[in-house]
Amino acid sequence: MTSFATPAAPGSRADQTLSWNMRLLAHHNLEGYGGIGEGMSLQLAADGRRILWLAHESAPKNFTGVDVTDPRRPKTVVQTDLPHARMRSNSLDVAGDIMAVAYQTSGVDIQPAGFDLFDVSRPEQPRRIAHFDCSGPHSRGVHALWFVDGKTVHLSSGAPDFKPRNPLDDQFYRIIDVRQPSRPVEVGRWWLPGTRDGDDAPPPQRLAPKFDTGFRAHNTNVFPQRPDRAYIGYIDGGAIILDIADPSRPAVVAQWRYSPPFNGFCHTVLPLFSRSLLVVSDECVQDQGADWPKLVWVLDGRVEANPIPIGTFPAPPVDAFARRGGRFGAHNLHENLPLPSSFQSDTLVVGTFFNAGVRAYDLSDPFQPREVAYYVPGAPPLSPVGAVQLNDVFVDERRVVYTVDRFAGGLYVLEMDL
Amino acid sequence: MTEAPGARPVGGGKIPVTVLTGFLGAGKTTLLNKLVRRPEMRRTAVIINELGDIAIDHDLVKVASETMALLSNGCLCCSVRTDLQQTLRELFAGRRTGEVAEFDRVLIETTGLADPAPVIQTFSNDGLIGAHYRLDGVVTLVDAVNAAHQLQHEAEAARQAALADRLLLTKTDLADGTAADEIRRRLRVLNPRAPLRDVTLGEVEPDFVLSPGMHRAADARALERFLGIEPDARGDGKPGGEDGHAGGHSGGDKASSGAIAAGGGARYLGAHANLRHDSSIRTFSLRFGDPFRWNVFSAAVELLTALRGPDLLRLKGIVNVEGEPVVVQGVQHLFHAPVTLEQWPSDDRSTRMVFITRNIGPATVRRLFAAAADVARDEADR
Hints:
The complex is a heterodimer of chains A (418) and B (382).
Chain A: E1 18-20, E2 22-28, E3 36-44, E4 50-56, E5 61-67, E6 75-81, E7 87-88, E8 92-95, E9 98-105, E10 114-119, E11 127-133, E12 142-146, E13 152-157, E14 172-177, E15 185-190, E16 220-223, E17 226-233, E18 239-243, E19 251-256, E20 266-272, E21 277-282, E22 296-300, E23 308-312, H1 318-321, E24 348-352, E25 358-362, E26 370-376, E27 390-395, E28 400-405, E29 411-416
Antiparallel strand pairs in A: 1-26, 2-29, 3-4, 4-5, 5-6, 7-9, 8-9, 9-10, 10-11, 12-13, 13-14, 14-15, 16-17, 17-18, 18-19, 20-21, 21-22, 22-23, 24-25, 25-26, 27-28, 28-29
Chain B: E1 15-22, H1 28-35, E2 44-48, E3 61-64, E4 68-71, E5 76-79, H2 84-97, E6 105-109, H3 116-125, H4 127-132, E7 133-143, H5 147-153, H6 155-162, E8 166-170, H7 177-190, E9 196-199, H8 206-210, H9 220-227, H10 267-277, E10 281-288, H11 294-308, E11 312-321, E12 324-331, E13 334-335, E14 339-340, E15 351-358, H12 362-381
Parallel strand pairs in B: 1-6, 1-7, 2-5, 2-6, 7-8, 8-9
Antiparallel strand pairs in B: 3-4, 4-5, 10-15, 11-12, 11-15, 12-13, 12-14
């Protein structure tokens, strides 16, 4: 391509905005607290407003509610603070008017670590109705949660009674019954055999120290199409499908472990039920391409116990992005949340790739996924890594795409031309 | 806005490409020289045979290299490098990494004698290009001074005019009025559905050149106009129509016969002009009330292109595939990927197709589709 490079465009620059089939409708800096984690959910409020709830990446802010009824004019309706700076919320979900917010601490044995339930029927005034404590001598609390049916919160979490053999393996899968929202009760849990102190099973073979990010649960998704299955990204343990028909005794249906040879950190397992496919995303966790490649995989899931990889999403051009600043590679996907406010598709998958922006892929041919749209915002002012770091994405049923920066850029509202 | 069903663009977000064609001396360079300066050309990549042909003042150029110039209005001019396919691939790759200024549409200048078909073929045969670009349409320049001779003696010139989505008549200021009228009549006969506009000294509205094709399914009229199936284009209330040469349509065929030119006003003379000069090329439309199964439709089209590809200059239309509206278009043996619309552009649910052919009549084509349907029905009955 050098022959086409012109003096004004000497290669890819982090300050450039790049777009194809996605257009910016609005950008909101979230009152200067533009660092958002991986908690995004859209509430259809009783008064007709659409409130996008966002969990912050780090202290001091807890969560922010943004009125996106008019996606061209997003307005902050509430922004809350954390009790102290040694914790973060990172993850949240909303079912009806109840919001669950995760709390993870920066070390073990710090409170509060766990999750809160809020009544957000009046979005301006979220009212806490319960706290579920997960703190303990070996626990940092909850990293991610899944709450879509109003009845059960599925967690990636530590617990007061759980001592991992290796401190990196502190967060496992927990199932919490919240049908009585003021009295959450644990009804099941599962960890990778060999990771808990005292397990009979031998400890799993760890990745090389450079890539060892632990055998921990990350996203723990359960869909109404298969209420007896949990689809779990288990970080260095790969993609895991659990039978949770009896939540007190989860059983492994399938485990697809692909690191090594890859560099770990399986993040999301998204089933496309109508097509018997699974889409599995990694998370990039090192800057400057140090853990490249971090990919999104397509698996043939026709035989549930034997998922077979059949392709990967065409990755953004590594030469252009790897050293653009910060992380480069896959992270969150829009997860077809079973909510009336959520876009649902078994052919179009949207994901965030840190400095390579937000991208949409057409899976009509699962053997040859095609990139069909992208939006890479120019580096936000005050970004500590000098490039955008799109962290998470939510697509609403109007096909409006909401995506957030990890550090400074806040919220980008986009329209897809697809 | 995103809420409206059918508001999304037809073509799956691929970058639309217009092919600009015309015989040597028809005025393509003059036209391009004027066009690239227009503000409407922002975010348009123009692929030109020789960058040096465009006499761009230095004060208009933002940045330039040997092969590319980004003008201050945002128009990106590039020369064809090794070949067109390579150029299109590199342009998209550069756009994706930010090395090339972003563009949302492409205008390709073909060489003077070039048959546009190979250019169009590029979009069907090259998977990478087909994934990112789609042919939006063909704009043909016709030279009012020389066209009388060319249309008569050069099969290629007639073909370029026949398969155009837009026709531009150049040098009308140099031709005498009667001669220009005669060319207009002959163009109307060759290609009655393509909008025709006079161009003097290359002055043309960019929209006329850049947007010949399908855009948003919600814009039903524009879609029907592009497909040549708009109900009132012919002034006879019928969708499209046969060109009327040789005394009209064949018995038993439902192809409608209508006026030769919308606004041309010379139906009788036009028909005879057609007979005299370009009798082998004809335009007709067919309408089918019953929905097709896709395999039946595609089998019929495949047979037609296999046996008579070179004589099927153009096919455009909307096909009822088991209730779904599917837009098809092809040039000779090349067919674009069919596009399923989210909604019908109007209440009319019948299949409507426009054919521009050489020595193939509507009755033949209709029988072919009917036979394919019969064969499939027999198979289903077994």
